[in-house]
Amino acid sequence: MLDSVGAKTATIVGHSMGGLVVTTFAAKNPDRVDKLVLLGPVKQFAEGGVKALTARAGTVREGGMAAVADAIASAGISALTASTKPLARSAVLASLLATPSEGYALACLAAARGREPVYSAIASPTLIISADEDKTAPKATIDFLAGAIKGAKVVELKETGHWLPVEQYEQVAKEIVAFL
């Protein structure tokens, strides 16, 4: 994509599974990444996560996004968001329900099969924005990534779940702008 628009480098941002995608790109192409921003990033899943993602792909293929969207939306947001920001939860739910089922199933399988990049090859300044109630990208994952990516800066958002770009969009934007 960078080549198609004539760009030599870019700042790249990834949320959730996108975090694994952009860290892989940054590790393989360190000269193409100016800065790296990770929002609730995941890393290679352990066996339990692989099984859960594979099962979720099957559920979505059988029952469509409606079979999983409510549970994902509810589990992925913080208690504060659930009780005080009904539009945020609705936005997450609408986003999930608008996702093509087969595309989502394939994304689950890709995440399940994702492998760790060589994090030490990442040369760009890196910002990791995490959330204290994020079950998908828990503190152990954030601590691992912060230690594996040289010089990574971590900002933790309080009373926030995995959908931090929706739950705390103003704070996320503020942190990214300050980093850039």
What does this 3D model show about the protein?
The protein is an alpha/beta fold and about 180 residues long. The chain has one domain (about 5-180): Rossmann fold (3-Layer(aba) Sandwich), CATH 3.40.50.1820. The protein has helices at about 15-30, 45-65, 70-75, 80-85, 85-100, 100-115, 140-150, 165, 170-180, and strands at about 10-15, 35-40, 125-130, 155. Strands 1-2-3-4 form a four-stranded parallel sheet, sandwiched between helices. α1 links the parallel β1 (about 10-15) and β2. The protein is globular. The mean pLDDT is about 95.
Total domain count: 1
What is the molecular shape? globular
The CA-CA distance between the termini, in Å, is 21 Å
Biggest sheet features = 4 strands, parallel
Under the CATH scheme, the architecture is 3-Layer(aba) Sandwich
Structural class: alpha/beta
Radius of gyration equals 16 Å
CATH superfamily: Alpha/Beta hydrolase fold, catalytic domain
The CATH topology label is: Rossmann fold
- The number of strands is 4
List segments where confidence is low: pLDDT < 50 over at least 5 consecutive residues.
none
Number of helices: 9
- As laid out across the biggest beta sheet, the strand order is 1-2-3-4
Helix content: 40-55%
Mean pLDDT, to the nearest integer, reads 95
Give the helices and strands as they follow along the chain.
EHEHHHHHEHEHH
Strand content: 5-15%
Report the CATH C-level class: Alpha Beta
Keywords:
single chain, 180 residues, alpha/beta, Rossmann fold, 4-stranded parallel sheet, 9 helices
